Amino acid sequence: MQPKQILRSRYQIIKSLGSGSFGNTYLAQDLDLPGNPKCVVKHLKPKTLDSTVINIARKLFQREADTLYKLGNNSNKIPRLFAHFEEGKKIYLVQEYIEGQDISTELTTGKKISEFDTISLLKGILEALTIAHENNIIHGDVKPQNLMRRNSDSKIILIDFGAVKEI
User: Fold this and answer.
1) 92 - beta bridge partners?
2) Is 1 a domain residue?
3) b vs e for 41-65, b when ≥16 Cβ sit within 10 Å of the residue's Cβ?
4) 12: in domain
5) Residue range(s) defining the domain that contains residue 151
6) Residue 89, class by beta-carbon neighbours within 10 Å (0-12 exposed, 13-18 middle, 19+ buried)?
7) Tally of structural domains, the chain
């Protein structure tokens, strides 16, 4: 997708945020809401045409949407799901944009972190994981790049539920 492209007559792509084996992620803005707030659009686009892989990817994408809807509406530690739809045989989900940076920027080699900051960081991570675990969800891909520190309140937010499993 290209910048300025509009999905569902509502979500305008701003730029690419990244890609994985099952799709691409974009920063977008919601043209229907006042102030055109930013959001994240995930596009299911497996890198193979193998029908088995495509079916697995569809199931994982649906599971991610279900999980975001379930968890994000009940917690400020998980992004909220705004939409999940098909357009032109392509599948998308739209979720809350977490303005901030992933914690890998805080965990650089050779940089020491104080005991207080370490405990604070671990508490933030555990609070986010607790939300998932209390709902019988295993994230499946916990790593610094999937833990965002939100700018507005410095809280840790768990993102990318693409590898989620239900207990």
Assistant:
1) 43, 85
2) no
3) bbbbbbeeeeeeeeeebeebbebbb
4) yes
5) 6-166
6) exposed
7) 1
Amino acid (one-letter) located at 16: S
pLDDT per residue, tens digit, the chain (167 aa), is 899 999 999 999 999 999 877 789 999 999 999 999 999 999 988 777 778 888 888 888 899 999 999 999 989 999 999 999 988 888 999 999 999 999 998 888 888 999 999 999 999 999 999 999 999 999 989 999 999 999 999 999 999 988 877 77
Is 115 domain-assigned?
yes
Active-site residue, 117 included: no
CA distance 163 to 130: 17
Helix (H) or strand (E) holding 14: strand 11-19
Q: What tokens does 7 get? A: 């999905």
Residue of 66, 102, 117, 141 marked active site: 141
112 lies in some domain? yes
List the CATH number of the domain containing 73. Answer: 1.10.510.10
